[in-house]
Structures are given as structure tokens and as C-alpha cells.
Design brief:
This protein is of the alpha/beta class. Helices cover 43% and strands 15% of the residues. Helix 8 crosses helix 10.
Length: 313
């Protein structure tokens, strides 16, 4: 990408979008376009078409999405399907119609089957059924990925996609009901420490295996792909390392400084038993992650402590 190219980052206030903006500025890109949700509702097709026709960006990072943890996905599947499908289709189509030179679509590892081979290669997409608790979100993300693929096949659009593993880091959502596992644990243990609670109860039995990628590492990969990759198949983004939710929980408690007892509510769902990405494709291209989980968790907790407004959401 040229340093003076006009770059639109959709979802710049979210954790991923903010990290991409930080990385762009760090590398000397200063012609960055952003819009808040109030300024531009991406679910509104007319507004999106007007924006692209007026601004004519050269490159697009599509990081906007309606996101949440197990509770949010399981209780509001219609909202997750509709909002994500609409915003993705609106942005991707408007980008193509207005001559965007390249677009990167950000998905999620939840697109892969519940019982996919481990580690999960990009080729296992749509080979068996999805995890039911986040099926709506996964279907929307698969649709966005496929739309990019079909525009490439039918019209030659240079639109690519990346599928990150579980993300965490600065700018995360710490809402007590609508957050993902790392920010949820950070908040829970921080509040337990502040309140002097003797024990904290977590969902499931702690056995599922998960992989976690620091969000700034993903941002670096996004720029790497925009500069080095052009193909229809998506690219996995991860660390190639995994740990159990129980191990993660203990690591977060240690990072926060909570020393009480950790209990497990086995009546609650575990979610997908294992979700390790095969990152050999990205590795072969020369990309690798930089931030180890223990270091990243300390940075994430610092972000939580230094952003009280975000933490109260």
C-alpha cells in the first residue's frame, strides 16, 4: 500500500479496528478514514453506498462486527445474524462497486466445524456442522468470506480474508454479560479481589482447549496480508499454542492478583471442546506472532485498569 493511499478502517473503535489504526499510523500511513456508528450505520445500505461514493477509499479493512461471548451469541442469534450479514454485505459490495483496490475481511475461527480436525486448516471450512452456541455469528462470517471469494471469482476483485483465533488486548469489551472469555475473567477476578471474595465461580468444567492471539499481533498480520497475499482462500491467524480454560483462568487470576478459590459450574456450557488453528499457511509466508500470553495478559489488565469507562460497560 502506498503511504498516501486513502485507507478506510471499518470498526475503528472496536478492539481489532483500533489495533489496525495503531499499526497503520506506526508504519507511516496517515490518510486513514474512520466513522463512528453514529456517523455511519453500516447496517444501512443507502448510507454505506453514499459514504463509499463520496470518499472513494483505495483500501478497506473490514473489522466492524456485532460481537459477544457465549451468552450474547446464544441468547440473541437473530440479532447477530442480521446485523453482521447486513453490514458485511453492504461494505463489501459498496467497496467493489466503487473501485476499492483491495479489501481485507476479518472473520473468526468459529467459522470452522465444531468437531473439525485439530489443528484446523483453512480447508476444513463447511465440512461438518457448526458449534450451536455461536452458529448465527459463524454463518454471518462465512457469508462475508464467501462473498469476497465470489467477487474475486466473478469480477476479479482483490478481496481477501483472515480468520483469527480468540483475541484479547487493549480496547477489549469488559461487559459482564457480553464479553469474551479473557476480558470476562479479567473483570471477574479484579472485582473479586476488590471485594475480598473468597471464591469465584466460572462456567463449565475448565476442560476446553483454546488458543489466544494478542490483538496488536493480528493487526500486524492484517497489514502483512494486504501487502503480500492475494488469493481466494482465507488465512488463519493464531499462535499455534493452546491451553485449557482452567489453565487460562488460573493465569488470569495470577495476573490480576486474585488469590481466592476458583469453582466450576458444570451445569453451564463448555462450548467447542477444542479450537486450535493450523497456522502453517501464514508461517510459510513469513508471518509469526510476537506476544506471549503471559505478557499479553499483563498488557490487557493494564488497559482495563487505565480505562475505567470501558471497564464499566
Amino acid at each position: 500500500m502506498e503511504k498516501d493511499a486513502k485507507i478506510y478502517v471499518a470498526g475503528h473503535r472496536g478492539m481489532v479496528g483500533a489495533a489496525i489504526v495503531r499499526e497503520l499510523r506506526h508504519r507511516g500511513y496517515d490518510n486513514i478514514i474512520t466513522r463512528t456508528h453514529r456517523q455511519l450505520d453500516l447496517v444501512n445500505q443507502q448510507a454505506v453506498n453514499k459514504f463509499f461514493a463520496s470518499e472513494k477509499p483505495d483500501y478497506v479493512f473490514l473489522a466492524a462486527a456485532k460481537v459477544g461471548g457465549i451468552v450474547a451469541n446464544d441468547t440473541a442469534p437473530a440479532d447477530f445474524l442480521y446485523d453482521n450479514m447486513m453490514l458485511e454485505m453492504n461494505v463489501i459490495r459498496a467497496a467493489w462497486r466503487n473501485g476499492v483496490r483491495k479489501l481485507l475481511f476479518l472473520g473468526s475461527s468459529c467459522i470452522y466445524p465444531r468437531l473439525a480436525p485439530q489443528p484446523m486448516p483453512e480447508s476444513c471450512l463447511l465440512t461438518s456442522e457448526l458449534e450451536k452456541t455461536n452458529e448465527a455469528y459463524a454463518l454471518a462470517k462465512i457469508s462475508g468470506l464467501k462473498y469476497c471469494e465470489y467477487l474475486r471469482r466473478q469480477h476479479g476483485a482483490d478481496f481477501i480474508s483472515v480468520m483469527p483465533t480468540n483475541l484479547y488486548g487493549p480496547g477489549d469489551n469488559y461487559h459482564p454479560e457480553h464479553s469474551h472469555v479473557v476480558p470476562a475473567l479479567i473483570r471477574r477476578f479484579h472485582e473479586a479481589k476488590e471485594q475480598g471474595l473468597a471464591e469465584v465461580t466460572c462456567w463449565g468444567d475448565g476442560s476446553p482447549l483454546r488458543e489466544f492471539l494478542y490483538v496488536d499481533d493480528l493487526a500486524g498480520m492484517c497489514l502483512f496480508l494486504m501487502e503480500n497475499y492475494s488469493d481466494a482462500e482465507t488465512v488463519n491467524a493464531g499462535t499455534g499454542k493452546e491451553l485449557t480454560i482452567k489453565e487460562l483462568t488460573e493465569l488470569v487470576a495470577e495476573t490480576v492478583g486474585y488469590t481466592g478459590k476458583i469453582l466450576w459450574d458444570t451445569s453451564r456450557p463448555n462450548g467447542t471442546p477444542r479450537k486450535l488453528l493450523d497456522i502453517s499457511k501464514a508461517t510459510a509466508m513469513g508471518w509469526t506472532y510476537q506476544t506471549e500470553l503471559s505478557d499479553g495478559l499483563r498488557l490487557a489488565y493494564d488497559d482495563f485498569l487505565n480505562n475505567p469507562v470501558r471497564a464499566e460497560r
